[in-house]
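Residues pack. Consider this:
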Amino acid sequence: MSATPNATAIHLRSAFISDVHLGTKGCRADLLQEFLETVEVETLVLIGDIVDLRSMSRSFFWPQEHINVLRAILGKAKRGTRVIYIPGNHDDVFRELAGSVFGNLEIHREYVHETADGRRLLVVHGRFAHRDRGSAGTDRDDCRRYALEFTLERGTRQFLTNLAPRAQEMTG
């Protein structure tokens, strides 16, 4: 991992990552690491279950690749990326820290993201969407509910090959 921003990186306003499950043997930390090294992003939104504390309480698994992913995320925060962390059901102990800010790392139960064209999107982890907010259709601030998730199983390479050029065009 480079200590300085990648000059050939794809520049994005925002990236959304969900359900990584660091701490499990099935986690594809290598793909996430590759993604993080390939993009420079203004806001990185981590939507639940980034670290699978539930699984780790049963069987501890924490290889160097998982440490590298956390270092990459914290490195981006150190270099100015705003990191929004929304805990999920496998890392829900962090929900107690909602409202906390640690430099460029913020912890929230939900987050309202504003798109480049001014639309407001409510970002929550799916497991808590109805429990904390009541039934569907009661979203305050007239936000639309969107499921924003980067699925690691489909692979970073597919994202970079198919979507990144279009994302770069849209963000200028």
Summary: The chain has five helices and eight strands.
